[in-house]
Amino acid sequence: MNYCFIILNLLILSIHLSFADSQLINSDYQQFNSTSNSNVAVYWGQHSAAYSTDVYNNSIDTRSLSFYCSQQSIDIIILSFISNFPGTNYNPKIKLSSFEYSNTNDIRTCQQKFNKKILLSLGGEAGTYGFKDENESEEFGDILWKINKNKISSYQLQNKYPRPFGNVSIDGFDFDIENGQSTGYASLANSLRKNFKTSKKKYYLSAAPECPYPDNVLQELIEKTELDFIFIQFYNNIQNCNADTKKFNWDTWLEYAKTISPNKDVKLFLGLPASLDSASNGYINDYSLLYKVITDSQASEHFGGVMLWEASDGFMNHDMNKEPYINVVKSILDENFRMKRKLWAMQTEFIMDIRTINQPPVPNSALFKSRNIYNYITFYQNCLLVIFMYLFFCIGFSLL
Ligand SMILES: *[C@@H]1O[C@H](CO)[C@@H](O)[C@H](O)[C@H]1NC(C)=O
Ligand SMILES: *[C@@H]1O[C@H](CO)[C@@H](O)[C@H](O)[C@H]1NC(C)=O
Ligand SMILES: *[C@@H]1O[C@H](CO)[C@@H](O)[C@H](O)[C@H]1NC(C)=O
Ligand SMILES: *[C@@H]1O[C@H](CO)[C@@H](O)[C@H](O)[C@H]1NC(C)=O
């Protein structure tokens, strides 16, 4: 009987441990791997799917940044945009949609709990930005760095769009320059790089050129500076280079990466629209084509993953299995992700046959639900195992 008493204590201890174990699964977020070829990067901040609802009639507008960060299908989130720079007295402004503006304070959670990289994008379609010369942009590089390190409060992005990050610092900067002015971006990038070197933390630089090569705005930047990621926009260029056309020019970019890029390890991302409405053309609705385009590019050196414009669209848009488009993309890229989502893996084994339909939005909490169910299963499995061992030992000892 004494033995049984000891074992009973062990049993209680084990239940505690198995509970702790099941908790761990919740924080099963992979470390970011910049050299991987299966990363998914999404732009976030313009809330393209505003006013949409999901299949449970939940508003997409209520989703915080941490909702997107909690998704295992996403690795990099690019906040968009700093749309006004250098600004009066070097006071740049960030312009996020009003929905998204209110919840950027999740950045710390994104970085620490979910292991995501958060970049901040300069530029965008609308805004007032550009430099008069290289001196101005170089100086702006120092200012941006100081803002990011939050060292000078007077440079807080102010008025309607104050710096919304509290005391966190982001993981790098992205250039999405769409206003035709190319002055100064190479010197800005070099200025940022110089500042990055003063920190122990790893920072990243990226650019989002459109697919025609050479890019008419960012060419100097991409030829003369070390960029970590190039998010090539294979959309809005149906006559030249979109991924779903015969003129798809991935190989041109690959050649750039191999022979021109100053960063020999530069990663190229296949940039695609996340829904039919995300761009005027380039959205790939057909899974077999999507599968082919992604896996063909993934086979090449320098492939870093897929970039999607943009996050809310990529979750509003889902297929008939209620799987968000972002998850479909990640599952094509990453076998581990596919295996983790076993049920869905069974459905997508026949990925070439699945027809997709554009229809109402994604199940809001389905992803969380499936993870919680998994936790319970693990918990009860462990309990059962412990009880079985308890019975086994007790019976064994009473026989002695
Ligand atoms: C990162 O990805 C590369 C390429 O897939 C792989 O070789 C490497 O082992 C990965 N690193 C880690 C820490 O997982
Ligand atoms: C969805 O919610 C809106 C507003 O709450 C309501 O008017 C509408 O009837 C709901 N639709 C469905 C299908 O439940
Ligand atoms: C840029 O800065 C350098 C050194 O600070 C200065 O000599 C040069 O005149 C400046 N150029 C312009 C266009 O302001
Ligand atoms: C940053 O802000 C958070 C929340 O406001 C606070 O808990 C934390 O202590 C701050 N960290 C530093 C280094 O100031």
From TrEMBL:
One GO biological process term: polysaccharide catabolic process
Protein name per its UniProtKB record: chitinase
Alphabetized InterPro entries for the sequence: GH, Glyco_hydro18_cat, Glyco_hydro_18_chit_AS, Glycosyl_Hydrlase18_Chitinase
Top EC group: hydrolase
Reactions it catalyzes: Random endo-hydrolysis of N-acetyl-beta-D-glucosaminide (1->4)-beta-linkages in chitin and chitodextrins
Annotated family: Belongs to the glycosyl hydrolase 18 family.
The entry's keywords: Carbohydrate metabolism, Chitin degradation, Glycosidase, Hydrolase, Membrane, Polysaccharide degradation, Signal, Transmembrane, Transmembrane helix
Keyword Transmembrane helix: yes
Domain GH18 residue range list: 38-336
Annotated Gene Ontology cellular component terms: extracellular region
Keyword Membrane (UniProt): yes
Signal sequence interval, chain numbering: 1-22
EC number(s) given by UniProt: 3.2.1.14
Gene Ontology molecular functions: endochitinase activity
Transmembrane stretches, start-end: 379-399
Record-linked Gene3D superfamilies: Glycosidases
